[in-house]
Amino acid sequence: MAIPVEHGDIQRAIALRKETTATQARVKRLPGSPLSNRATKNTAIRKKALVVLDEVLDQLKKSEFVTEGVGAGEFQRQATAFRDEIQFAFDLADDKHTSQKKKNPLYWSLRGAYVYGDDNDLKTVVRMAFLHYFFAQRPFESDTKAIMKRLVDLRFPYEWYPATRTMQRTVHLHVGPTNSGKTYRALKALENSRNGVYAGPLRLLATEVYQRLQAKGIPCALVTGEEVRIPTHTDHYFMSCTVEMMPLNSRFDVAVIDEIQMIGNVDRGTSWTSALLGVQAKEVHLCGEERAVPIIEQICAGIGDECIVHRYERLNPLETMDTAIDSDYSLLKKGDAIVAFSRMMLHGLKKRVEEQTGRRCAIVYGSLPPEVRAQQAALFNEPDNDYDFIVASDAIGMGLNLEARRVIFDTTNKFDGTRQRTLDPWEIKQIGGRAGRYRSARRSGATTTEEDGKGGDNVGLVTTMTPQDLKTVQKAFRLHVPDIKTAFIDPPAGIVERFASYYPPGTPLYYLLLRIRDMATVGYGYRLNISREVLELAKLLEDIPLSINDRLTFCYLPVSMRMEVAQRVVRALARVVAENASGDLLSIEDMPLEYLAATKESELDGWSGVLRKLEMLHVSINQYVWLSYRYPGTFKSQALAFHVRSQVEKRLIETLEQLNFTERDLKRKRDIKRWLANMQGSEEDEEDDEEDDEEDDEEDDEDEDEDEEDEDEDEDEGEKEKRRGVMPLEGVQIPTAGRREGARQA
Questions:
Q1: Rounded CA gap, 210 and 208, in Å?
Q2: For the whole model, what pTM was predicted?
Q3: What domains, with CATH codes, occur in the chain?
């Protein structure tokens, strides 16, 4: 975990440098004294920091920042001066025993990244510290700084949508627990309108609503990050999309935005805020949890929209069981859904369930293609086959329609992209609340009523695989989940481009985004968020000569930064755009098309390796497809990409049937996840204590290695849909640019 470097930290370091000379700081110490020992420990950190600095400087030298911006001479002078600042910071810590954040911020940040992070975290801190230092030496004029400050005045994000502000909208907020009929009511309003749009958190949900409307004879388009289906027989149609793809430049009678509580989610909340503030609909139906009511009412009051709250009760009871399954698969019953949070655990559970029960088990998780997930969910929902069980990731918590009688948590710990942690109470409630659902994709075209979900035989049950986790689940269901206090926003692309114009050409995008974050003024009830994934992608593409707009587009490309192959592919695709080179699929050398031919014999870890390669290829192909909508004149092999993707999906289904695990393997993985969650929770407490420790004397420079599992942790598919948009397609208006620039109404 990287320790953030702030602009003020570097300014304090410079001031400290002027006040205290290096000669005064270098006080000789006797060998063996505590300060001498500290100096010995800091030697390794100092050496590593200087090595990383050389790497950062070499990378910047090759970028536009030097070649077309500040020039080599000034860059070298500032680089030499900053190297002296690092030396001075460590001298101060060694000889003066000054290591607190306020008195020695540069040392504090470097040491924090070294001790608590990895090489990439240290590189990030060094890079940001150097850029902060560089621009601190060449401050802006006061008038220019005032203009920049006004530019990032983000207190009134609703003003980004002037066309919507001319409308008097009525917002219907449908709130209640899972399986209360709130989404059903909103969709009925959509079906009864002349034209409308549905926006959901997952591609799979968007596809379900698309199929539902089509089954009822209602023409409908499907628009997601990787797929666009437009009716060819009519120009008048409804639309079903992911929230990131909500069309904000078209008018509708009714708009439905599902899972509105996601507006307070740090990773994806900006998309829900944009959809709510910007959709041009006479009626806006929001579906979500009770905890979203205060923030939605506050937003509606601020923009003058009428807000009507509809509250619903659960259609059938939901109970937590008194006992856990305790890995006794003979206790499983038809309609059970087992929830786990890693790909390998899910496959292991599937195999064990089938071996122990003699019945089939479906599987659904984020990195499986939507078509495969839909097929697996349909197998589970179909009553007249032998698929009695399903193992699923937390994708089911987002409304994936499964006829699950009981939800069983295999574990209550998950990897959230940065660390292992225990599930939050609201997550446990949302996932567990899927037990007892009666509405399914299989019957989506049929006529049903809320009464269909009632009845004594339809009690939803929630339990766990182990007794330890059962206590966590029971406690979560007793707790009150606090209300959402803020809605997340992000800076529009136009503001980022104008802000960048005040800096030298080639100034790294990640630095600009962080300066916007530091300088921005945000209104009450809103919170600015620039995601870690965006910053990581900006750093990944730093040395590739792209325009700011192109960089922003690539920063919202769906890519798992934990996959080295995916990183290579995104760099290759960015070079195609930067160099105006051939974008034919077969001409991109880093595209791992050979993975399609992977076999059990060719992989060291057998079928697990085959599955991993197929998933990486699927992600890579999706990157190409995603960009083919944004750069249709460059990435022209869309039809071939669709064909390759379909072949990958077929092989994925075949490979799923080949994986095998023992109960001992599963127990070991559960224990590791629980241990990591506990350890990392303890580390955070220790880190907080360290920040409060004025003397910082008793710190140890241990860098604990985490025992990570060998598999890629499962990501909710929605995580790969973050703030996406596509270039306008003929016959349909949808958001433009890589983020949502088209969503900002002119």
A1: 5
A2: 0.79
A3: 7-139 (no CATH), 160-316+724-743 (3.40.50.300), 321-478 (3.40.50.300)
